[in-house]
């Protein structure tokens, strides 16, 4: 390019004495005597969560080397804090203690509540036994309850009770009344189950 080019004539240079506008660099470093921009946050300490100093890179490194969250705490308090931090500072219980509390607080059935299947029976009660001495299973106990019998009912008791309930709830024997069909269905289901497991 030639020095006599027309483009050199259009170049203009700003005079040095004109004031240059300052560029907004943000907050300055919080370190005493430092005027550099404070770009790096550093925590202020315990009981001041969410509050930060702003330091330049040099001073934030120096601050972090000396920072100790537990300054002013006793050694026992530090150990307790660290144990609590492992669970997010939430209360915990041992499994045995939790199960003991759960069984102690187990809901008791309300006297007005209908519980035909004994879902809320106390688990500490002795297990019911059949007439032959075998331990009664839950579904067997529920089926006997459906028929209005106890655990010690014999095969003859179950058959007699079944015949009685079928006659009482069957529509053909009640002049065509179908209001107790659901009860009849439950009685038949219970009897069939008892027969299937060999109790009849």
So how many helices? 7
Give the overall shape. Answer: elongated
Could you name the ranges where pLDDT drops below 50 across 5 or more consecutive residues? none
What percent strand?
A: under 5%
DSSP, total strands: 2
Q: How far apart, in Å, are the first and last alpha carbons? A: 117 Å
Largest sheet: 2 strands, antiparallel
Radius of gyration: 43 Å
Q: Quick check: average pLDDT? A: 80
Succession of helices and strands = HEEHHHHHH
List the helices and strands and how they pair.
Blueprint: H1 6-9, E1 40-43, E2 52-55, H2 57-66, H3 75-85, H4 95-104, H5 138-146, H6 155-169, H7 181-196
List key phrases describing it.
single chain; 200 residues; mainly alpha; Helix Hairpins; two-stranded antiparallel sheet; 2 strands; 38% helix
Short description:
By secondary structure, the chain is mainly alpha-helical.
Explain this structure to me?
The protein has 200 residues and is mainly α. Among the domains are: 25-85, no CATH class; 138-196, Helix Hairpins. It is built from seven helices and two strands; from the N terminus they run αββαααααα. The protein has helices at residues 6-9, 57-66, 75-85, 95-104, 138-146, 155-169, 181-196; strands at residues 40-43, 52-55. It has a two-stranded antiparallel ribbon with strand order 1-2. α5 packs across α7 and α6 (155-169) runs antiparallel to α7. It starts with 5 loop residues before the first helix and ends with a helix. The relative contact order is 0.06. The mean pLDDT is 80.
